[in-house]
Design goal:
- Its EC number is 5.3.1.9.
- It catalyses: alpha-D-glucose 6-phosphate = beta-D-fructose 6-phosphate.
- InterPro entries: G6P_Isomerase, Phosphoglucose_isomerase_CS, SIS_dom, SIS_dom_sf, SIS_PGI_1, SIS_PGI_2.
- One of its GO terms (molecular function) is glucose-6-phosphate isomerase activity.
- This protein is α/β, with parallel strands linked by helices.
- It is 47% helix and 14% strand.
- A five-stranded mixed beta sheet has the order 1-10-9-7-8, sandwiched between helices. Strands 3-2-4-5-6 form a five-stranded parallel beta sheet, sandwiched between helices.
- The structure holds 5-phosphoarabinonic acid.
- 5-phosphoarabinonic acid binds next to loops.
């Protein structure tokens, strides 16, 4: 196991008996999930995806990624929500932060996840003299944000390299049969990848939605899937809370929610985890926040946020619990030098790595927040490898599916997301939308 869950700092709030009391329900819900009898059962394609994904599909993604890597020095991944965050989380997690988004391959840029003119104008400036490829990703094929961004970027690319060459540089990831993007891709003759019908956006990181941009960034998607598969096997084998950490995590957060700890704050100590937290917020928020129920998922990045949100975490309203997402083994470390004059008084740390100091910051924070009345748990990732990342993605998917079932909601739909769209379309005078 490449992940380890520690719930010691939750024990003053959640007893072993309370956990044991939930076991029968967890087992029942596990069986519902596995037998496909539960809520949202037409969206369970992710459940055994890591072990079922076909070799031919992996090869096709790798070949497309290779072709993009050899043709282009920038890939723009165009998508929003579940069609965007998984890839960004993985790429940020694996690649060095200060050496351009793509490390040794093309730089990876993102579009279609906002409607800011400034953002797209800046992006158009940045890519002006680069060889650009586009991967437009939308399951419905009709989402406004990526559709608008794609229209603008497609035109720019066609003007830069001509219509024929642009066609060779565009890959569409969308539904197998329907949607405007599917029609457009067929009409233009773009290479396409399919988002399976039975997998919702936020559970799609291990489909071509995530796999293609991740592979373009030079990350080994076979290793990522291997990690996913390991977590899938572990979570399928046993529903017992002492054997299934994903379910233990779900059970603990459920019991805390029942005690009016209504906000879960994911706290990370590595900038590499910034978009993992964003991906997790979407997964949990969109899966659980319905029927006036559900934990509010928030995130902080320490230690910087200890100097802003740290005050609130220590002494604010006691409606929160904290989930620390940690990395046991960094890729690289930097040690603190010895100075003869010791004018800054830091010689007591000389020879120590930053990771050592960071670890003490975590331990000090966890103890302080517990003392301040904030239960906290930690999920430690063994390292920053694709295998560990694959395990983590699946761990959270499984845990959130069970959490939704524990709450009694369908964790695989998102009816609330439609409401703003109706208003926006009316304000934009989109044909076919009437005034309310
Ligand atoms: O998780 C989800 O289903 C959503 O976040 C979608 O991924 C998001 O709205 C984008 O939808 P689409 O891929 O259809 O453009």
């Amino acid at each position: 196991n490449r992940l380890s869950l520690n719930i010691d700092n939750v024990k003053p709030f959640v007893s072993a008996d309370a956990l044991q009391g939930l076991q029968a329900e967890v087992t029942r819900l596990h069986n519902l999930l596995e037998s496909g009898q539960g809520l949202g059962n037409d969206y369970l394609g992710w459940l055994h995806l890591p072990s079922k994904i076909e070799a031919a599909e992996i090869q096709a993604v790798e070949a497309a990624a290779q072709s993009i890597r050899s043709q282009c020095d920038a890939l723009i991944s165009i998508g929003i929500g579940g069609s965007y965050l998984g890839a960004r989380a993985a790429i940020t997690f694996c690649n060095p932060l200060l050496r351009g988004a793509g490390g040794n391959g093309p730089d990876i840029y993102y579009a279609g996840h906002n409607l800011s003119g400034d953002y797209l104008a800046d992006l158009l400036d940045v890519i002006r003299n680069k060889r650009v490829c586009l991967n437009v990703i939308s399951k419905s094929g009709t989402t406004t944000e990526p559709a608008v961004a794609f229209r603008i970027l497609k035109e720019a690319l066609e003007q830069q390299v001509g219509v024929e060459e642009a066609r060779r540089r565009i890959v569409a990831t969308t539904d197998e049969k329907q949607g405007a993007l599917k029609q457009l891709a067929d009409a233009e003759g773009y290479q396409t990848f399919v988002i399976p019908d039975d997998i919702g956006g936020r559970y799609s990181v291990l489909t071509p939605v995530g796999l293609l941009p991740i592979a373009v960034a030079g990350i080994d998607i076979r290793k990522l899937l291997q990690g996913g598969q390991e977590a899938e096997h572990a979570a399928t084998q046993s529903a017992r809370l002492d054997e299934n950490p994903a379910y233990l995590y779900a059970a603990v957060r459920h019991l805390l929610y029942k005690q009016d700890k209504t906000t879960e704050v994911m706290a990370c100590f590595h900038p590499a985890l910034q978009y993992v937290a964003e991906w997790w917020k979407q997964l949990t928020g969109e899966s659980e926040g319905k029927e006036q129920r559900g934990l509010f998922p928030a995130s902080v990045e320490y230690t910087t946020d200890l100097h802003s949100m740290g005050q609130w975490m220590q002494e604010g309203q006691r409606t929160i619990f904290e989930t620390f997402l940690l990395v046991a083994q960094s890729n690289r470390d930097v040690s603190i030098p010895q100075f003869a004059d010791d004018l800054d008084g830091l010689n007591y740390l000389a020879g120590k790595g930053l990771d050592y100091v960071n670890d003490k910051a975590y331990r000090g924070t966890a103890a302080a927040h517990l003392e301040g009345g904030v239960p906290n748990l930690s999920l430690t990732l063994q390292d920053r490898t694709p295998e560990t990342l694959g395990q983590m993605f699946y761990f959270f998917e499984r845990a959130v599916a069970l959490s939704g079932y524990l709450l009694g909601v369908n964790p695989f739909d998102q009816p609330g997301v439609e409401f703003y769209k109706k208003n926006m379309f009316q304000l934009l005078n989109k044909p076919g939308t009437e005034k309310r």
